[in-house]
Amino acid sequence: MQIVNQLKIKATPVFYANKKAYEEGYPIICNEGGSRSSKSYSVVQLLIHIAISNPNTRISMVSHSLPHIKRGVYRDFKGIMEQWNIWDEKDFRYTDFIYTFKNGSYIELFGLEDPDKAKGPARDILFVNEANLISKALFDQLLIRTTGQVFLDWNPADFISWVYEVADNPKNKRIHSTYLNYYRDWETDRKSTRLNSSHLKLSRMP
Predict the structure, then answer these.
(1) HEC profile for 114-183?
(2) Helix (H/G/I), strand (E/B), else coil: 108
(3) 179, 14 in Cβ contact below 8 A?
(4) What are 121-162's pLDDT values in tens digits?
(5) Does the predicted model carry a pTM greater than 0.70?
């Protein structure tokens, strides 16, 4: 696996907002935004960074169905890894959709068609994509098996969903994004980041 010494990546304000909320220790970080607002992409970027920077970290990326994961978060995940030149085909198990990093961290991706999947092994960090499409009961099962922080994202839709109760809790962090935040279209005050080859630590570029 080749890692470029100073690999430049593009990141939006949504990435930095999530990174800041994570570093400040918010237990649940809620991302609300429309399509192409960079919310899911930015969270996946951050979780890859966390996995690489913290050995033996267990991360779950989940959604209401595996086909939905394959069409969305998995494509972002693999695309980012390839873009950063750190994807190694041998480290991804297609049978159970788990990528294991060289430092022992792993990222697993799964759908919740079978509710019993929410009662699986514990994890350190949880990301629920399109969280409003799963029930609060399923989320609670995932939550009690998560030892660290949780990321949620959803498109604005059903305002009576349980996600708004979670987002409105002052102990949690709510981040709103729009299509203007999408990294490919972000023209004003654009920023990039560098990945340091020793542990791929992210830092702002001047």
Answers:
(1) CHHHHHCCCECEEEECCHHHCCHHHHHHHHHCECCCEEEEECCCCCCCHHHHHHHCCCCEEEEECHHHCC
(2) strand
(3) no
(4) 999 999 999 999 999 999 999 999 999 999 999 988 767 899
(5) yes
